[in-house]
Amino acid sequence: MDIPNKATRINLFNFTTPQMRAFHMSWFAFFLCFFAWFGIAPLMKVVREEMLLTKEQIGWCIIGSVAITVIARLFIGWLCDHIGPRLAYTWLLVLGAIPVMGIGFAHDYTTFLIFRIAIGAIGASFVITQYHTSVMFAPNCVGTANATTAGWGNLGGGVTQIIMPLIFTMFIGIFGFSESLGWRASMFLAGLVCALTGVAYFFLTQDTPDGNFKDLRAAGKLPQKEEKKGMFLSACKDHRVWALFVIYGACFGIELTLNNVAALYFLDYFDYFKNMDTTKAIKMAGLFASMFGLMNIFARTLGGAFGDRFGKKWGLSGRVKWLFIAIFCEGIALMVFSRMDVLAMALPTLIVFSLFVQMSEGATYSVVPFINKKALGPVSGIVGAGGNAGAVAAGFLFKTQAINWPTALFILGAIVTSCAFLTFLVRFNEESEEEARLATESAITLKTGEKELAASMGN
């Protein structure tokens, strides 16, 4: 859909415009969802010992945590088109907080797995974040806006590796909780904050620069819901959507997998942790694992920014070329990381690998808004679901007894490198290239005019 009055620049310290309020609220909401989604990961050592979980059961928990998100992301894209991102985010945060808090009532493997699966639904928040910034920002900066909001949201996956062990320690050390009660209270707190943010999202944002979907449809300024019928099917018929589905599985799917396994990977495969007590080992492993997620503070933004720059110089095909470079380098870096067995070598390699993972994600969503503007919700949802489908597939490598985790990571690296060549299927016709070029030039001209006006008013 064509939305007027999109922002042509990202003014980080401006909280007054609807575009920047949506920018800040969407990344913060996604951050909290990511935090709650993977909040249990750094505490799995305690859960494993309490519930006597086997390697296979942990593998099913990894798969379960991302499986339901595939369906949720497909649905949430359609929902955004119908009720708007504001209401979609509100309901997702409020309802999604229930299983986050509820996992504290798990008492065995079965109930823990059920809650772990249910929590995965909040991972659909990514699609709303990308949808909201896509309708708020112009083509000259939409890649950067999408990448930054998603990257800062993904940052929750790194922060939770540090903060959740600290919250867990606080409940034990200050309030005198047992380890069993400590991890449960930690998850309850994470869910409560998600619910409160859902309420804030309702009051602080709007769907588009000019208002909410309901009001704009009533005024005839947006297509009616009936006119959106068939858009999901249209997106499904486009082979480029499915190429990006797999590609996103090869980057975001890998990030989800690492968020789930990183802390346990360090604990189980590096001698550094062997003689530590449980609490200290959990905190240190969480700290090292957080290095992977914390790269999101700038790495995904870089991926989107490079996508915008390649787009300005070489058009939509330039955005796709940059996506190939990022994905290919990610696969090579993952294979190298999987061969590291000394912590001093593993950590720098992890950081390089993380850089390319998150730049690949940003690069993917610098392409997505240009695939089918009339079906932005379905395209965003399908591609986003690809990330979780990739994580589900990767999860099976970590549950099998026949393959150790370093070997599983090496296999994933080889698969990711191969997936880079799917970018050759993502092509645009001359009409789309010209439309994108004119839209970008128009946004740049408008941005320049705004700067000149601001300068003249300052004088």
UniProtKB/TrEMBL annotation:
Keywords: Membrane, Nitrate assimilation, Transmembrane, Transmembrane helix
Stretches assigned to the Major facilitator superfamily (MFS) profile domain: 22-431
GO molecular function: nitrate transmembrane transporter activity
Pfam families membership: MFS_1
Name of the gene encoding the protein in the UniProt record: narT
Origin superkingdom: Bacteria
Gene Ontology biological-process annotations: nitrate assimilation
Subcellular location: Membrane
Listed PANTHER family: HIGH-AFFINITY NITRATE TRANSPORTER 2.3
Membrane topology summary: Multi-pass membrane protein
UniProt main location, coarse: membrane
UniProt name for this protein: Putative nitrate transporter NarT
One Gene Ontology cellular component annotation held by this UniProt entry: membrane
Organism, as annotated: Gimesia fumaroli
Entry similarity comment: Belongs to the major facilitator superfamily. Nitrate/nitrite porter (TC 2.A.1.8) family.
Transmembrane segments: 25-46, 58-76, 88-106, 113-132, 152-175, 187-204, 241-269, 281-299, 319-337, 342-359, 379-398, 405-426
